[in-house]
Amino acid sequence: MRFDATDEQHQLQAITRRFLEDTAPLTTVRLWGDKNPAGFDRDWWRRASDLGWTSLLVPESRGGSAAPSTGAGAGVGGLGGLANLAIVAEERGRLVAPGPLLPVSVAAWTLAVADADAPAEAESTATLEASLSGDTVCTWAVGESEQSWLTASPPVTAVPRGASLELSGIARAIESGADSDSYVVAASMGDDVLHVLVPAEIAGLRRERAGSLDLVRRHADLTFDGVVVPASSVIVGAGRGRSVQDRQGHIANIIQCAEMAGAAARAFEVTLEYTAQRCSFGRPLASYQVLKHRLADMKLWIEASRAAVEGAVTAVVQESPSASHLVSAAKLYVGRKATDIVQDCIQMHGGIGVTWEHDLHLYLRRVTTDRQLLGTPVDHALRLASLIGL
């Protein structure tokens, strides 16, 4: 939760937490992780969409609920609802909740800021409306590559073929990639980047599920083997393609960081309660000085993680020149500390903490997955060093 949260944001937090506790407790997370191929239920996702999760980055003029951006920077599209999205993401982290919030949110924002003269405007508008309602799942597909995600061009390439584009390449580790109805694909065309709307059921597109550490977060590798789409499928052209891709990365990493902060905070709460009740040699574990120090450190890291997320959100919403710096600083700090916190929590639980029956491993799976995708802490450290001229 942001330190200066409004009454509406407190209400959003409370509603989100109550919804998740009622409809997706950890018992349900375990069940869907074991029994549901997609990791989430479509009807449940529609209910989450009804709460406005999918519309938080989409301006009211396009059917969403986002306030205008307060900045006057690159102007690639306001992100006034990013603080609210971070609140939802933090609450989802507390219950390691399912659902494609990250890829759907990024795709919805991209559709909402499509080029004004984009030939695919009618199609993108229909896709956006269906995605906001939860009737379809349209996800962001940029893909991991062997190089650092932060410096590599999109692994999918686009080649003009008359009035069409031919897409080739493999986009790896796409969240909900095997369970989506359509994709907003980032594609390289020479030195430029395009963003193309591609239906899931199209000739030449192969979807293969990839293993995932997270129980309810599914990923897939998308192979584009000469996929031919009309040139009118381009929703963001070369003129704005790279700036839009940068903003996509900002949004995605902020969602990850907020989620990791929420997961670490909940693991800490569970551990604090456990150490107050569990006794050793007739004394509660929490009474031992060495454990008090570890708990104090964890609390400090959690609050610093929240502050890092807040700083990144503010910079991106205001389109600050330091937005990339603060996003990378947040991923660097939260990505490291969240895994340290959950690992410490497991250690303080002793043997029970490493069992399948205990819930702490669910949190370790979530923060480790978020840490590794869309730029590791090391990747972001190198990027931050480059940005400040080191």
Description of the structure:
It contains eleven helices and ten strands. α4 packs parallel to α7, α5 runs antiparallel to α7 and α8 runs antiparallel to α9. The strands form three sheets. Strands 1-4-5-8 form a four-stranded mixed β-sheet. Strands 2-3-7-6 form a four-stranded antiparallel β-sheet, with no helix packed on it. It starts with 6 loop residues before the first helix and ends with a helix. Helix content is 50%, strand content 16%. β2 and β3 form a beta hairpin.
The CATH topology of the largest domain corresponds to: Butyryl-CoA Dehydrogenase, subunit A, domain 3
What is the molecular shape? globular
User: What radius of gyration results from the CA coordinates?
Assistant: 21 Å
Strand content: 15-25%
The CA-CA distance between the termini, in Å, is 33 Å
The CATH architecture assignment of the largest domain turns out to be: Up-down Bundle
Regarding quaternary structure, what we see is: single chain
Q: Major sheet: order of its strands?
A: 1-4-5-8
Strand count, sense and barrel status of the largest sheet are: 4 strands, mixed
Spans where pLDDT lies below 50 across 5 or more residues: none
- The CATH homologous superfamily of the largest domain is called Butyryl-CoA Dehydrogenase, subunit A, domain 3
